[in-house]
Predict the structure.
Amino acid sequence: MPSNNSRDGFKVLMKLRPNEITDEKQPAFYLQRPKILTIYSCRHDSISSDVHLPYFKKPTSYPLDLNEGFDQFIFRQNKKSRLRKVEKFIMENEENHLQPDAHTPSGSGQTQNNSKRKVILCQRGVLTDIMQTPYHLNASTSNNKTFCVTKYCGVFHMQEQETITNFTQKDTYHQKFMQLCFSDDPNREPETDKPIDDNNLIFCIIKTSVKEFDLIYSAEIAGIVSDRKIENTHNMEEMNKLRFILTKQLNTNGIMGDYLNHRKCLRWWLQAYLAKTSDVCVGLRDQNGIVRTPVQIKRAEDIAKNRKWKPHVCIRFLHSVLKLVEKTMTQVDCPHTVYEFMYDSITRCIKFKVHAGKTDLSFLSDDYIRKCKQSASH
């Protein structure tokens, strides 16, 4: 529990000691295999079940200029609606995911017991930020990570802190690379001259578990590898059999040796792992945004091999943080109160601040709050 107060109003929860949290000798445990529950198409503020999956088409003509179309690029809007996809799924689904059975599903490889399971609703980005922390401890503003938690009806709701981003041209390279690699039809080449709207996205709602915690979260996906058109995206049994792929581009300026040792590659692997994605298409660009060499397709599982970072260390740290959040918020039951958790790389500690009652940080919608209350009463 809190050891002292800092001048910014935060209370220190835990000091992080590198040798302890990266200890590879501790018993390893893993996430239950992630399962897709549904897929949504998001266009600005609209969330729809009418989804048309993009199809991966490996580029054949080089160089690829990631600057093309920048003058027409529509940047993503910063909205306080990041948990809306998960809220929509919970509200529209007949199964009561907020009150899971006390027993762990058979075959999960995890201990079955009668203790109540804990439900976490969040975004993949929150999980990724937490899981990469053991290897991003050094003092740097880029290593500082903050997430907000509201506990209501026994359910933990976790959301990334709202930030204001000053976009640059380099921030468009990822979406341009995606456009060059995906088509609306497996039998057609990508349409690369259309304006890119970064507010048109596809998300999966995914469920997994780690020990006593059930995690339901949204994750943005890029597309699939398939030579046939997928007409029915409502059949989750078929959706879970698809081969998903994500695209990543990396500035090779200053990189020596294997580029997969770059610190970004840990995040690539975490994003793929959490989104049931088996492949990563990598484009190596120069500092001017030009990909001059053929893209490389990497199996996500191969990215994790022979690295300084270890998957089970990331997963163990996630579990430790979830336990810490649970312990800190034991007495909390309010749909508006927000606990702001932060990893401070300068002091190398996890700290928190309480925002009681309804504030600008409150993020649960009124409709969801009503659904949550109904589910808890059943």
